[in-house]
Every structure is written in structure tokens, then in C-alpha cells.
User: Fold Bifunctional o-acetylhomoserine/o-acetylserine sulfhydrylase from Curtobacterium herbarum.
Amino acid sequence: MTDEPGFATEQVHGGFLPDTTHGARVPAIHMSSGFLFDDFDQARDRFAGTDDGYTYTRLGNPTNADVERRVALLERGAEAILVSSGQAAATVAFLGLLQAGDHVVSARSIYEGTRGLLTQNLGRLGIEVDFVADARDLDAWAAAVRPNTKAFFAETIPNPKNDVLDIAGVAETAHPAGVPLIVDNTLATPYLVRPVEHGADIVVHSASKFLSGHGSGLGGVVVDGGTFDWSASPERWTHLTSPERSLGGQSHVDRYGTRAYVVYARDVVSSRIGPTPSPFNAFLLRQGIETLSLRVERHSANALAIAEWLDQQPEVTSVDHAGLASSPYHDLAQRYLPRGAGSVFAFTLAGGEPAARAFIDAVQLFSRMTHLGDVRSLILHPATTTHAGRTPEERAEQGIGDGLIRLSVGIEDVADLLRDLERGLAAVRGTAAAGREARLATATDVATPDVATADLALGHTVPAPHLIVGDR
Ligand SMILES: Cc1ncc(COP(=O)(O)O)c(C=O)c1O
Assistant:
């Protein structure tokens, strides 16, 4: 038996520093823009970095630091930086590594916002990106590497297809090329997988999702595994290995060793760009983290039950959930996600967009929303929302058809969720029946009013709404 505390214990107690002034059991919310210096010398030393107290919240804040310690611990990283959103976390992580002329290799299946960050924002700064179509194809990752490749990027569980990443495989392809692997672990959370333990070097999160869970505020985290050896090829990381006047002529690697990247990302990138989270949001985030494992366990169990149920429905042509034995990602899920394949996944209706529209408009408990990892169940049609900016061909290549619906399954009672999804299917049957009716009427000029009634009478009853849902 190991003495190491379990996940649930760490998510509640990890990184806690007792309040020696008041004894507060829950750390305070330090809504203070700046911090007092005792005297002239202390001010000088804090600016010089030789006294590590606080100066100004953009550079660090005790409430934010409390969350940073906890997430770093849960992810088994060396250190974390809390920022104001997931997009800010990706931006800081990339800018901590990249400069004009550099190149990134990324999985194609990433969040559209991060794809835009890479292609449009970093692209305009002279940073190039190539996408690997099938992230399981390690030869494709290796083939995309150039001399100026400075980062590999992928998500542990991309949405909406729940196509699990081979973290160790991609890390082992990156490292011989001298490239660190950045992994977005938003949808898995450290409860389902800790990418650093499988070779990832940097982990980013949209903390707005499962880490918070309550859907009450945005946040993001960059976690440095502290494992990448920046001094192995100093010419590739000159911003970390060149002398800095602000460090008394030392380089970041000289002064901070394995912490060089995270210190640079905090002091030179994040503090300059300024995506500082409000300490109040950090407090909300910490409240969420304390129940992370309990929620994710329930999310995952609900999602698997729903995926299995959807898989049995005649109106559904496919279900993209790696927990299903039929999934091409099932083996990877068993290897990396033994506690569950998460709760964001997709299914496809045979009836295309009309069926998706009928389904989504019929549900009453699922919230029609673009958000993920909330305690509430959420539903969205990617082809007309998140992926509307892609061409139909691009969407088809990614398996995002017009009938595909994304779910982020919440922690409600699964029977209620299934009843709600049944409402969606009943509406789809109604649409199909109405379509048939219209076709028959056109073909024979005879009205067939009984078709819809007959279809709906096949034992699929639509229960009366019994919940008042006011959060749309
Ligand atoms: C996987 C992933 N990463 C990052 C983000 C961006 O997070 P945020 O909305 O907190 O900026 C999202 C948002 O949906 C996401 O799904």
C-alpha cells in the first residue's frame, strides 16, 4: 500500500497553506491589485526576484497561487500558471516557446479556437503550423517535423469525436526531434489522465470546463511538467538560454534550471500580455476543483450509459464514444483512461440536419449551449456552430456530418437524461414521418394524416415535461 494520498484527498487538501493570521480553513479571496512592501529594500528585492513575496496581481496573487499549487500537484507538474481562460493558457504556453520562423505540428482534431490561434494569430506573427489528420499516425507526426519545429500540440480527448490521444506515442515521437509536447487536458482532467506521467512536457487547461464544473467563470492553466531539458540544445531555445540583464547576466536556464520555461512564461509572457484571472474567479475555480473526481466519475458513467443507449437506437447511425467496444479508440481509452473516456462525445442521426434540428429543439433538460464540462448536460450541433467556419468537405474529412450532435453529459440522474433524449428521438421520428407524409402527398396527391400518428405510437411515448429548466 502506498503512502501517497489519493486523488480525492489531494483535490481537497493539496497545496493548502495555513492562514497563520486568522486560521481561516478556506483560503481567503485576496482582491488586492497590489501588495505592500515593508520598506525600501524589500521593494527592491521583490523587483530583483531575490525576495519572492507578492508585488502586483498581474505577476502573482495568493488566491491564484493557491489554485496554481493545487493544479500543478494534481497534474504531477512542477509548477502552474493560472490565467483568465483556456485560450489565454494556450497563448501563454505557445508564446513561452515560439518566435517568428518557428513551426508547430498539431493534431487536426483540436478545439477550433486553438486552431484559429495557431493559424490566424500566431500565423500572422510568422509561426507556421501543420496538422496531422489522424493523430494515431505517429509516422505522420514524425514526417511533419522540420528543423524549426518547436512544439507538438494535441488534446487528450478532442471534441466532438472523443478520439483519445496516444500521449506516450506522440511524446516519444517529439522528443528525439528535440521538441516538447504540449497537451490540452481540458476534457480529461487529471482525474482521468495525467499527461505528464505519459511523457507530455506542458499541459494546458480551459479551467472554465470540468475543473470548475459550475459554469460560473472562465479560467485557464498552464502546467509545466518540469521535465524538458532546455539546455540539451541551447541554440533552439535562445530565449531561455541567453544571458538576461534582468537576471544579472544569467539565463533563465542558469537561474531556474528545469523551471526555466515556466518562469519565462509567467514573468516574460503572461505578466506582459496580462490575462490575469480575478482572484474571485480563482476562488470559484478552487471550489470546483475540490469535487472534481466525484463529478467526473458521475459525468463519465452517465455519458457511457447514454452512449450505449444511443448506440441501440435505429435513428442513430453512429456514436463516437471511446468507451464503446466498437470504437476505434477503445484500446487507447483502456490504456490511458481506465476511469472513463470522459463525457463529451457525439452521435449522428440518419436524418441529417433536419433530424438534428428537430432533436435539439425538442430536448428540455439538456441546455442548448456552447460550453463543456458543466454539471448541467449540454447539447450542440457542431456543423452549424463550432465548425460552421469549415467547409463541408473539411467537416466531412473530420467526420462531422450534418446529422452529428455533440453532447456534454452532466451529473443529473441518467434516467432523466435518457427521457430527455427520448424526447429528441420522438421529434426526429415525427420529422421523418412528416417528411414521408409530404413525399407521399406529392407523389399521390393523397393526404396521409395517419403516418405520423402511427410512427409516434410505436411504443415511444413522450413524457410530459416535469422539470422547469430556466437556464437557457
Ligand atoms: C479543449 C478546449 N481547450 C480550450 C478551450 C478554450 O477555453 P476558454 O473558453 O476557457 O478560453 C476550449 C473551449 O471550448 C476547449 O474545448
Notes: The radius of gyration is 25 Å.
